[in-house]
Amino acid sequence: MNNEAGNRKLKVAISLEMDWGFNRHQETFAGCHAYAQKAGWECQIHPAPDRMLTSSGKLPFDGILARVTPDMAKAAKQAGIPIVNVWMNTPAKGVPSVFADSALAGRMAAEHLMGRGFRQFGFLGHQRDIDSQRQWNGFSEALRSHDFTASHHRFPRVSVEGVAPGWERFIARLNRWIDSWKTPIGVFVTQDIYCRYLIDVCRSKGLHVSQDVAIIGAGNETIVCDSPPPTLSSIDFGFSRIGYRAAELLDDLMRGGVAPSSPILVPPAELVPRQSTDVYAADDPMVTKALRFIAENSHHRIEVKEVVTAVATNRRSLERKFRQFVGTSIAGEITRLRLERAKRRIVETDAPMKDVALDAGFRNADHFYKVFSRVEGIPPSQFREEHQKVFLQE
């Protein structure tokens, strides 16, 4: 692909607040450049492309990729230059946008914690941010589908940023929220760094991570996640794919394409499990051991008898305990985890359904099709059509 106007390379401005050292910005930038290199663009990093548009008689760019501010959106519209936004919380309205699917991230967190056997849940997020609200929506909806609810605590982002003007109030309210918990509890946190704040307060109360509190963050900021112990389980949004898809959309708009009527949502890359959720919670040690075995082996073609053997008990006793402490049968839990694995691959890839079935641990595609249709109420192909937002070239 060579995207040129005559013999001139297309010029694209990139404005992503690169001085913020988060994956969100660095990886989005890398994804933009991966597409730009393929397209043959000439890219320029610029913190305020709107000022160049309004101060120059000649248009300096053919398109803009940015965390779009209202001034940028206004200047681009007046200049007739395509612009694509990757900032979910922007005040600018009606701008073509590409975002992480935050609701799907919330569902992934809920399924991970339920798969670990938790039956009490919490969410720590921002008061007004759209991405935090969507994380909560996906998290709570996934829990409700299994008849669970979650406690939630919201705080203003500005209270803990910079010199943290609201730090003391934030910690005091966090303490009161934690005092309301019934443990063991699984908690989803809107951003990795806040997991560290939560862990510090939990430790001050004598709560152990992960036995008393299992925690999942969002963003997979590896420096924050990997130290100090415990390491943090986190949602990796795959921001490079968001940048790539945003550049792909800009290319289409510069060619005269029509802007999509709603933001393009890119599924998270994966949930990266680490020490903060390395536990299987149940009020019975046999059930806990069985849950661990199922979670680690459900993608293989295991049967109930293998779970019973791993726990070293009899089937009737273990089935009774599963009904009591988990609310489902052993086979039902195996199927649930297999379906969740399959659903993620259906949404995140364009793999053939036969491969999806085998990867999730079903014996063949026909069996997978029947089970999926019975449990979800629709066939796998329809689920993909309804839930898959975009497939990206890596």
Can you tell me the CATH superfamily of the largest domain?
A: Response regulator
Class inferred from helices and paired strands: alpha/beta
How many strand segments?
A: 14
Q: Which percent range describes the beta-strand content? A: 5-15%
CATH structural class of the largest domain: Alpha Beta
Please bin the fraction of helical residues: 40-55%
Distance, first to last CA: 15 Å
Tell the overall outline.
globular
- Write down the overall mean pLDDT: 89
Topology as H/E string? EEEHEHEHEEHEHEHEHEHEHEEHHHHHHH
Subunit organisation of the chains: single chain
Question: Quick recap of the structure?
Answer:
The protein has 16 helices and 14 strands.
Descriptive notes:
InterPro entries: Homeodomain-like_sf, HTH_AraC, HTH_AraC-typ_CS, LacI/GalR-like_sensor, Peripla_BP_I. It comes from Haloferula helveola. Residues 288-386 form the HTH araC/xylS-type domain. Keywords: DNA-binding, Transcription, Transcription regulation. It holds the Pfam family HTH_18. This protein is α/β, with parallel strands linked by helices. The chain has 3 domains: 4-100 and 239-267, Response regulator (Rossmann fold, 3-Layer(aba) Sandwich); 102-237 and 271-277, Response regulator (Rossmann fold, 3-Layer(aba) Sandwich), CATH 3.40.50; 285-387, Arc Repressor Mutant, subunit A, CATH 1.10.10.60. The chain has 16 helices and 14 strands. It has helices at 23-39, 49-55, 70-79, 102-115, 130-144, 167-179, 192-204, 222-226, 239-254, 285-297, 304-311, 315-325, 330-348, 353-360, 365-376, 380-387, and strands spanning 4-5, 8-9, 11-15, 42-45, 63-66, 83-85, 98-100, 121-126, 151-155, 185-189, 213-218, 233-236, 264-266, 270-272. Helix 13 (330-348) runs antiparallel to helix 14 (353-360). It is globular.
